[in-house]
Amino acid sequence: MKRLNCYVPRLVRGIQRCNVMVNIAMKQLLFIFLLSFLHQAYADVVIKLEPDTISIGDSFKLTLSVDSAIDATPDFSVLDNDFTIIGTEKSVNYMVINQRAKSMIEWTLYLTPKKAGKIEIPSIMVGQEKSQAKTITVSSDVSQPEKQETQTTRKALDMQSNVDVENPYVHQQIIYTVKIFNKTNILDAAYTPPSIKGALFIPIGSGERAQTMIKGDIYAVETLKYAIFPQKSGKFVIHPAKFTAIIEDFPPQKVTLKGEEQILNIKPIPSNQRTWLPAKSLTLSEDNATLPNQSFKVGDTFTRVITVKAEGMPAQLLPNIIIKDGQGYQAYAEKPTIKNQFQGDTLVSTSTTKVTYVLNEPGLLTLPEINIHWFNTSTQHKETTTLPAENITVAGSALTKIDNPTKPTPIVKPSPERIKTSLRPHPFALLFLGLLTYAAFHTWRRTKTKQPENAPIKTLKKACQKNQAQLAKKALLDYFSNNTTNYISLSKLQENIHHPELNKAINNLNNQLYNPEPQTTWEGATLWQAFNAYLKSTAAPKKNSASIPPLNPS
């Protein structure tokens, strides 16, 4: 019994040791289970950083490996807050494990940090899976390798700019040239053009591409040119162009090129210049070279096309051709048509104006010369360009013109023998001939007095009712024409009508017929009202029929 009692404590202590060992084993098994679970959770998405310590301005590589069984695209937007993605690559790797084929998709990102310090790279979601979070250390010191990379970058990629004139006049053309030199492969290139306030800024073409050799290296050169026209004098600043790109390197390098600001001193307009047109050259021309050899008559119209051409000046600044009415004609100028185009580095502009002339009087008419005063920027002197005067001959009315005049018939004096043998006219024959002549004259006079008064008025009324401008013009000219005067143009008719209301209506009709930009619809009611007012003002007062004595008084 005593022996049994001595073994009991030993048995209890053994049991206690077994319990402790079981607990330890259970905990170890649980820990292994958890590790295997976590490994299973992240086994399909693996992230790797190279290197994990960098300096501010440096870039690093982030590799994300994803099992090809996961059909989803990684969400890299979680990196935007602390990093700039300067390059992305994608590849597929195939491998055989335990005689089983397996493929992995690798996403490679090149990143630059936006700040210094220890920065956490959060978990990246790929479908329902996600990667582990990582931490990268960013030093605030600029590394020596980065300085060397910057120098190398400047040699591989460069930008230059210049102007052809540093002290121009107001409105004078300035050519601003930007050149980009490149001898390496670049990605995601972006170009921001230069800018300037208070000036016209016109790009010249879409750029030129060429190759050049500098110190033994071949560079691709892209040249962009701009024409600048300052609108006021003083100090002008050209804000330079900006060029950004990613150089294909390991790792990729994002670069930004920006030129220096260019300062221009714009000279004011000289005090002795009343008109200011600075240009390299300026010419005046017209396409109607045969004008002096043409024949015209009163009432005819003709058109001149006058062109102003300038080099080194935009068409928006060219003067308008102003043609005034002259002796024997009226002129109607259309709105000019302008055009800009580049010939090499020079802006060539044209302004073309069509002028319609209405001839009112016969005789020798002179179309005066046209002068344009301008400033030659090449010679720095004032010049004047002239379009010479033109003389034209205008014949009289076509109604009185004889196209094929016939020779007069010669008068043959009868011989005395013929006179003696001629018979004397019978008295009754002479009486009959007189009565016939009187009847014919009376009939002609009655139709002559009725036709001009009634027919043109009816035609004019019809034209005014239907708003037919051409027909109204013809009816007016027919009504006012008589045996002594044949009116061919409305302008000439207005000179002999002293009635303000009718003259105003005729002027509106004339503008409708000859103005290059007439009204959409001519209103004939105004002309008809003014014509009736004219008739009332010129009509003779009617006598009272009671005061006229009867033809047969009793």
Largest sheet: 5 strands, antiparallel
Helix content: 25-40%
Oligomer: single chain
The N- to C-terminal Cα distance equals 197 Å
- Which secondary-structure class do the elements indicate? alpha+beta
CATH topology of the largest domain: Immunoglobulin-like
Total of domains: 4
Average pLDDT, all residues: 77
The proportion of strand residues reads: 35-45%
CATH architecture of the largest domain: Sandwich
Count of alpha and pi helical runs: 8
Rg, rounded, reads 51 Å
Shape: elongated
Which stretches are poorly predicted, pLDDT < 50 over at least 5 residues? 33-42, 144-152, 398-423, 447-452, 542-554
Reading off the top of the CATH hierarchy, the class of the largest domain is best stated as Mainly Beta
What is the strand tally? 29
